[in-house]
Design brief:
Helix content is about 50%, strand content about 15%. Helix 1 crosses helix 6 (about 200-210) and helix 4 (about 100-125) runs parallel beside helix 5 (about 145-165). By secondary structure, it is α/β, with parallel strands linked by helices. It has a single domain, classed as Rossmann fold. The radius of gyration is 18 Å and the shape is globular. The protein has eight helices and seven strands. The longest helix has 29 residues, at about 100-125. The protein has a seven-stranded parallel sheet, sandwiched between helices. The N and C termini lie far apart (about 55 Å).
Length: about 260
């Protein structure tokens, strides 16, 4: 393994944005650590990368095992410069089934925090590094269809801000990436979406944001203005729009 090259680990790299980021970083000369639940998908991705890589099966639902697995992966790489935490799940949960709410919290909150904690501890000892959390524009407001998902992304906003505050006088960078709609399994088949971009376009924008040292980056950048507008909406107006959307969705589904 070439110790002169920069090294990155991507948690949740088997598909979507994570997969595209792995290809982008490998093409940019990084040695890439591929981590996720599907060992088969990770190994298939590894064969497509132009540069060196390392594969580890990590399921962030089991935080104790995930922490152990990530620490071992860092040891195997013998260094780490960039940690990208991309693992996340979304379920539309109109009936508020607890198993779905719990799963989103396990992955998007507990799993994310566990991985960020390992990275923060390592970079504190090293004295430098970069932690990137892939959150979502969804974190700005609540959602009747997926309460736990939107709340979990708001948690990420605040946790990453807390880490930025903690590391404000150090060489450790913390980046909050807030994508809009990206063409992945998470959003395919949903109605009423706009401005959908490819995972490859998202990966390009994310890489540029990290290189520029951004604290918060919307992907694409015009989502910043859109979310400013949504944040300004009174809750009563937001709920009215939500009811209208449900009525439209029900009507179009029936035709």
């Amino acid at each position: 393994m070439d110790h002169s090259k920069k090294k990155a680990i991507i948690i949740g790299s088997s598909s979507g944005i994570g997969r595209a980021l792995a290809k982008k970083l490998s093409a940019e000369g990084y040695i890439v650590g591929l981590a996720g639940r599907s060992l088969e998908k990770l190994q298939a991705l590894q064969k497509e990368l132009p540069g060196e890589s390392l594969v580890r099966q990590i399921d962030v639902r089991d935080t104790r095992e995930a922490i152990h697995g990530l620490r071992n992966m860092i040891m195997a790489l013998r260094d780490l410069d960039l940690m990208i935490i991309n693992a996340g799940v979304l379920f539309h949960n109109d009936k508020l089934q607890w198993n779905l709410e719990e799963d989103m919290i396990k992955v998007n909150v507990l799993g994310f925090t566990a991985m960020a904690n390992v990275a923060a501890d390592y970079f504190l000892q090293k004295g430098s590094g970069c932690i990137v959390g892939i959150s979502s524009v969804a974190g700005h407001r609540g959602s009747g269809r997926s309460p736990a998902y939107n709340a979990s992304k708001a948690f990420m906003f605040n946790y990453l801000e807390g880490l930025r505050q903690k590391f404000s006088n150090t060489a450790i960078k913390v980046v909050d990436i807030r994508p809009g709609f990206v063409d992945t399994e998470m959003v395919r088949g949903r109605k009423g979406l706009f401005g959908i971009i490819s995972p490859e376009r998202a990966a390009e924008d994310i890489y540029k944001a990290v290189q520029k040292g951004k604290r918060i980056a919307y992907v694409p950048s015009w989502w910043r203005a859109v979310m400013w507008f949504f944040r300004c909406l009174p809750e009563s107006v937001l709920h009215w729009g939500y009811r209208r959307y449900l009525a439209w969705d029900k009507k179009t589904s029936a035709t």
